[in-house]
Amino acid sequence: MSLDMPPDYKYLFNDSAKQKLVLEETYTIKGRNPISVFYYDNKYSLLVYKINAQLNLSLKDLIQQDVVGKNRSRPISYNELSFPNYKFSYAWDSVPIISKIIITIYGDSLSYFTNNKNISFCYLHLSSVFIRYKEDASWDIMLQKQNIITNNIPMEIVFYKMDYGLYILVVNNLHDSGPLDKKLPRILLDQGNSN
Questions:
Q1: Which side of the chain, N or C, has fewer Cβ within a 10 Å radius?
Q2: pLDDT tens, residue by residue, 139-161
Q3: This prediction's pTM
Q4: Rounded to whole angstroms, how far apart are CA atoms 125 and 180?
């Protein structure tokens, strides 16, 4: 862990958001891009992770929602980052440049938005989310609420494509389980640098 922000992550946010943004920590992982956790306005937690994706593809071409959700390959080991409301787990394997993101969502109150070709986000009450990159592959990333018997967690998952990378942002409340502001992706992100 460190308190250093990856150089490209600072370009994700607009100048107004940067005034209220505090880096909590960055996890440096062999074979992967760093995972950074920020606090915004002392109200929200943001996890940021860069996915190595082919940038000549639009988000519409990259992201596919899967309704089956079976982990179709061999069992693999995961490392887990634990937060007050949810767990973020990632496979130990290194990740090559990918051309597809397959996302499986379990929860309720799901709303899915694509603002333009560079921003796509979903709002949900999280039970679990799984991400893999091929139809026959194991999950690479898992998001799960901390306690299976508690209510689902309000959360926004944002895919943001910029000139130099594709980023996933996980946004949730820092102190409570109330509703999230659905305008947050537009408030936070510097859309002048999007591809």
A1: N
A2: 899 999 988 777 888 899 999 99
A3: 0.88
A4: 10
